[in-house]
Amino acid sequence: MSDTLRLESNGRSIDLYSWLNNKVKGHEALAGIVGFGLPGVTNQWFSGAGSTSTHRGSRISRRVINLPLKVYASNRQELNELLSDLSIILDPFVPRPDGYRGAARLFFGMPDDFEWYVDVVRSGGGDWSRKTDSDDRTYFKTTLQLEAGDAFWTRNEPEHFDVKVADPGPPTALLPRIARLRVRNTDSTAQGIREMVNSGDAAAYPTFTLHGPATFVGFYGPRTFVPHSSTVEAFSWVGELAAGETLTIDMREHTVEDQAGNNRYEGVEVAPHFFAVSPGRSTMAVFVEGATPATLLTAQWRPKRWAVV
């Protein structure tokens, strides 16, 4: 898995390490790729009356990737077909696949046996000098310039956990820490303490999907359980969710929607915290009221990395 590099979009996929598979035609990434390391940041500073400044915050810049490429085939017709594959995948005007934040998705295999990706849009490159970078029949060389609005590399497979009515409640020692959340421990309550693992090195935002019936769902985020922390990450929603209906809470996008895409944010209680999962292992609490054996809460989050090698 560690030796993979491919572009994917619009039902097509290009293997950029074609030489590893001894292909007689294809797209080959060449030496000199730039843009897999740490992305740039724009810093904000406060300058006081003295000669020093205080850092007030940072914003991550778009990731820019320069990808040298050789496309080779046995004849001119095949070369044009390979060029068309590349053009279609990078076409920014074709409706993007669901979940994509760019025209195409660039995957890179890592030693952990997962692929990590960034969503990219071509911002330049893709041309070549005839008779210099190409023989006009069987190959051409070019460099693609790609930009990723989300500079983090995201793991292709998410981490997850489920909570059902039969799950055990939280340990007694943790209850005083989460006493502010209104929870009635009855037969219709699903609750539990769950461990969250983020194998990346950047914060990852979870998405929660609640399958009804339910009348209440509440979370306490990971920072609530950090020893000596004064932060309480609480999020709760109150409403009627019937059997067969679903509620999706996206902590990154700050959205709450049902299975039809309708906005259900009106059920969010005051001062919500849309929390993230920090790198490493952390703990959170989950509570669901009005639950039956058919009720299911699923949490998913995709680990993220600042850079890959």
In a nutshell, what does this entry contain?
By secondary structure, the chain is mainly β. It is 5% helix and 42% strand.
Characterize the quaternary organization of these chains: single chain
Helicity level: under 10%
The chain-level structural class is: mainly beta
Tell me the radius of gyration.
24 Å
- The unreliable regions are 167-187
Tell me the strand percentage band.
35-45%
Overall pLDDT confidence: 88
Look at the structure and give the CATH class of the largest domain: Mainly Beta
Q: Tell me the number of helical segments per DSSP (H or I, 4 or more residues long).
A: 1
H/E element sequence: EEEEEEHEEEEEEEEEEEEEE
> Please, how many domains?
2
SS elements, strand count: 20
CATH architecture of the largest domain: Beta Barrel
| CATH topological fold name of the largest domain | Elongation Factor Tu (Ef-tu), domain 3
How would a textbook summarize the main sheet? Answer: 9 strands, antiparallel
**What characteristic shape results from the CA principal axes?**
globular
Q: Note the gap between the termini.
A: 13 Å
